[in-house]
Amino acid sequence: MRILGFLEGITLLILVFLAVPMKYLFDNPIVSKTVGPIHGAIFILFLISTFRVGSEQAWKFKETTWKIVLACFIPFGTFYIDHTLLRSIKDKA
User: Fold this and answer.
1) Which residues of 65-92 are buried (b: 16+ CB within 10 A; e: fewer)?
2) Cα separation of 86 and 52, whole Å?
3) Sorting pLDDT into bands at 50, 70 and 90, what band is 49?
């Protein structure tokens, strides 16, 4: 799950700082057409993984799961939630 969060954040960085400028400044949408769907798929896999792991680990929804889901919808939130929450959960296991 942490790997998916990292990949989601990296693909968003690529979209924001490479693909979008290339598309709108240089009229070259190839990177956004390639990375966009990859980012979308990783985003969905991260959400599914969050609910699956949360269920398997018996996370309390109000304490853990909702924070991770919310982080998915905030740009670069997966980096923050990995640093503040997921790393500490892994260390406890």
Assistant:
1) bebbbebbeeeebbbebbeeebeeeeee
2) 14
3) very high
